[in-house]
Structure formats: C-alpha cells, structure tokens
Amino acid sequence: MTLQSARQSGAPASSSYDIHVYVIGLTGGIGTGKSTVAEVLAELGAVILSADLAGHQVYQPGTPAYEDILAAFGGDMLAADGTIDRKKLSAIVFADPANLRNLNTITHPRMKELMRAQLAELDAKGVEFVVLEAALLFDAGWDDLTDEVWVTVAPPELAAKRASARSGIPEEQVLERIIKAQMDNAERVGRSDVVIDTSGTLEETVRRAKAEWGGLKKRLATGGPSSMRQRAGARDRKIESSTETRSME
After folding, report:
1. Are strands 16-18 and 238-240 parallel, antiparallel or unpaired?
2. Those residues with Cβ within 8 angstroms of residue 193's Cβ, 6 or more apart along the chain or in another chain
3. Number of structural domains found in the chain
4. Is the pLDDT assigned to residue 211 strictly greater than 60?
5. Cα 123 to the chain's mean position, in Å?
6. Of 25, 82, 130, 136, which is the most buried if we count CB atoms within 10 A?
7. Are 141 and 106 in a shared domain?
8. Last residue of some domain: 107, 127, 147?
C-alpha cells in the first residue's frame, strides 16, 4: 500500500489534516468473537482494518521492525526463507515478559503508523466507516485512532475453548499464555463505548452486532458526539502530509 492521501486530499506539503472517516475500534480477547462481529459490520457496509494484517506487514524482511527484531532476538526464530517464524518468536517472547515488552516496543509504534496511513488512504477514497479490529487496541495505545470502541466479551473458559478449536493449541496454554497476558474483560469494558456479549449463540451475537450498528447510525444522525472519545476529543487522527510517497509494502 502506498500513502498518497496527502496529495489526493489536496493537503499542502508539510502540513497536517484530520481524518474524517468514522473509526470503530473493535477489541476483545482471543476467542471472544471479534472476527464474527467484524464480518457482520462488513456486511453492513464498514471497511475492516485488521491489526493482525498490519503486524504481518511490519514483520516483512527489509522493514525497520524486521531488522530490530533480528537484532533483539537473533536468527534462531527465522524460517528457511528468511522470514520471521511467528510461532518460534512467540515461544521466545511468551517465555519472558521482558522479551514480550521488548517486542511490543519494536512493533506497536510501527503498526500504529501503518494503520494511521491506511486510514488516510480510506478517508481519501471517501469511505464512511472503518472498523479497526485489534485485540491489543488499548494495550498498544491504538484506541486514540478511533471515534468509539466496541468490545466483545465471553467467559475465559469459553474463549479458550473456541481458540483451541481454531488453532489446535491446548486450552490450558491459551488461558495461560495468551488470555492472561492481555487486558482482562472488566478493564476493556470500562474503557469501551459498546459491549457485545458473545457467550450465546451465533445468531444472538449477529443480532446484537446489528442492533449496535443501528444504534450508532441513530446517534450520528442526531449530530452530537456519539462516544466518550468524541466528547473528550481523545483522538490522534492527524496525518502529516509529505511530498514523498511512503511505501507500506
């Protein structure tokens, strides 16, 4: 992806401009149904921006993050083709909290920069709604890219069962190594505007997501702030324009 939004929007070189596309942050722990809700919102007209995909992009060979990861953790976690083996790297960082913090320090700012650029691209194309899907939305400080945040919640045991069925990782490992390493449901709920409980049937989750989408449209139709972030003005949505084209691939 190439960042040409400054020129497309008519913003002058070396200035900044606001992104006007409405951004819903969608977060929640693994196995809580984020992807299901994202699929529903996509069917309703939103564009999905995945933090996981942004993560894969910043890990690519030749990127600054790739070089920093290699310097920090060595070549043992590389695959035969020179790419980063995410499973090997995960084993290293989840075994030591200091390693995980180091990796996050390397990758999270680069991912935020990439996602901000992608939002600018979508804004320049006239997209109205974007869903930024990110399990680590709050942990990584990406919530200031959003207008409001939706969180999916489910009991940890159910979330672990779902994640285990999908990935093949034993449920006990999911609980210990992944869910407990992330922000718990209560803290996410306290910082979110919309809470979607996905512990019921798939049909119930779909119905709740559609109802919340309808509620959002009604809130926006009134012309007032629709979320705690808009009321507080807590957004980091300025994009610095440049005469250079910045490659994101």
Report:
1. antiparallel
2. 148, 149, 150, 226, 227, 228, 229
3. 2
4. yes
5. 17
6. 25
7. no
8. 127
